[in-house]
């Protein structure tokens, strides 16, 4: 064991991948599983994106490309960011990588020095702390709760900051809580970042799925923020292209150049075929996004209403993404199917083994009191799954 690098002891395996493997095994054995654990859209990739990839193969577009991604794709990203966020970038400020996760890895490893602190609002997406630790940084968790809609405020950030703080990671719409910040809330956070000269990584991979009336605001669009922000986005969720592995960053040119250096010695360009598919997705008809948003909206209503009827569960109405963040702390110490619920992992395990219901325990997202339910599954699966949950958990009196 001592023969391995020290980071191997510091990093935890991805809990989402473990759950998905367990569910896949149960399905292979012929069991019906209600897959509330899933973190990927249940829609097919748009037909024009698939066709573009097939054409790319036939046209022998199969060699190395520009390490940062083909210029036409970076230009399409520039247009998309202009439209979605109202921020104007140049193509040399865009680096296309192997999924949003890879873009985050490049950004975090480019910004952090040993022992730099990173302000990380809790709940957080599972890979953030591990990527920070891998880069030699220290996550400073900033706890949130339902009272602020699981959002951080400048006051909370002021409490957590230290002279070693270098970076704030803001993910909104948030995975797992679904929280979306208003422009006014972001204004306060932006001023905090400017005051303390912080970098911001703004993970916007769910930006297409916002249900609050005022829509989505990127912190990069606020005065003084573009020069200190690295936007991370991907085609994964917006275009239902998780397996194609195309994500991108938008940042000041020196940051982009440094990330590119890292990428040039690690992965080189993302798959040429996948780049062409992503280009078609970004440039083609966008009505698929609207359809997905409406479908998610209808499912959200049903899932939230259903969860609120179940014994021992509470949740807010999430404003974005496709998750419901459920406070299940009332179950702690209680007995379910003859087993003591001493943690959210135990609750998830009992629901899976006794009811074939897959959910994500909040543990990997930084909470011992919550579970995450995804509604990237069909309405029928949501409805049947809720009935199944009701049989195990019971209903509120
Ligand atoms: N950021 C957040 C908040 C996510 O939830 C995910 C995927 O689940 C990613 C980044 C990574 O996306 P990709 O599949 O493009 O690597």
UniProtKB/TrEMBL annotation:
GO terms for molecular function: transaminase activity. Pfam families: Aminotran_1_2 (PF00155). Its cofactor is pyridoxal 5'-phosphate. Keywords: Aminotransferase, Pyridoxal phosphate, Transferase. Its EC number is 2.6.1.-. Residues 32-385 form the Aminotransferase class I/classII large domain. Belongs to the class-I pyridoxal-phosphate-dependent aminotransferase family. PANTHER family: ASPARTATE AMINOTRANSFERASE (PTHR46383). This is Pyridoxal phosphate-dependent aminotransferase.
């Amino acid at each position: 064991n001592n023969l391995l690098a020290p980071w191997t002891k510091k990093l935890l395996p991805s809990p989402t991948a473990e759950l998905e493997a367990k569910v896949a095994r149960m399905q292979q054995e012929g069991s019906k599983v209600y897959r509330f654990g899933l973190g990927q859209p249940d829609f097919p990739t748009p037909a024009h994106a698939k066709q573009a990839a097939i054409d790319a193969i036939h046209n022998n577009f199969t060699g190395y490309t520009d390490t940062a991604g083909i210029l036409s794709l970076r230009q399409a990203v520039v247009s998309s960011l202009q439209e979605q966020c109202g921020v104007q970038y140049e193509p040399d400020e865009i680096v296309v990588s192997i999924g949003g996760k890879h873009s985050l890895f490049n950004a975090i490893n480019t910004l952090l020095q040993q022992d730099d602190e990173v302000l990380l609002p809790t709940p957080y997406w599972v890979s953030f702390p591990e990527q920070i630790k891998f880069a030699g940084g220290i996550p400073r968790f900033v706890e949130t709760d339902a009272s602020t809609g699981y959002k951080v405020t400048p006051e909370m950030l002021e409490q957590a900051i230290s002279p070693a703080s270098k970076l704030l990671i803001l993910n909104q719409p948030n995975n797992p809580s679904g929280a979306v910040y208003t422009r006014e809330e972001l204004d306060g956070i932006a001023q905090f970042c400017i005051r303390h000269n912080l970098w911001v990584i703004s993970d916007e991979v769910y930006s297409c799925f916002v249900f609050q009336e005022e829509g989505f605001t990127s912190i990069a669009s606020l005065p003084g923020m573009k020069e200190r922000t690295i936007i991370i986005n991907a085609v994964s969720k917006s275009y239902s292209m998780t397996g194609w592995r195309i994500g991108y960053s938008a940042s000041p040119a020196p940051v982009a150049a440094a990330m590119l250096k890292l990428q040039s010695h690690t992965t080189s360009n993302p798959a040429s075929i996948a780049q062409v598919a992503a280009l078609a997705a970004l440039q083609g008809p966008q009505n698929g996004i609207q359809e997905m948003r409406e479908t998610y909206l209808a499912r959200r209503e049903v899932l939230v209403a259903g969860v609120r009827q179940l014994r021992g569960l509470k949740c807010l109405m999430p404003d974005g993404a496709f998750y419901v963040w459920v406070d299940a702390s009332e179950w702690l110490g209680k007995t379910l199917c003859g087993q003591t619920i001493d943690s959210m992992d135990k609750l998830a395990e009992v629901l899976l083994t006794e009811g074939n219901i897959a959910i994500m325990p909040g543990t990997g997202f930084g909470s011992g009191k919550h579970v995450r339910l995804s509604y990237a599954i069909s309405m029928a699966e949501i409805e049947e799954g809720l009935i199944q949950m009701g049989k195990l958990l019971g209903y509120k009196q």
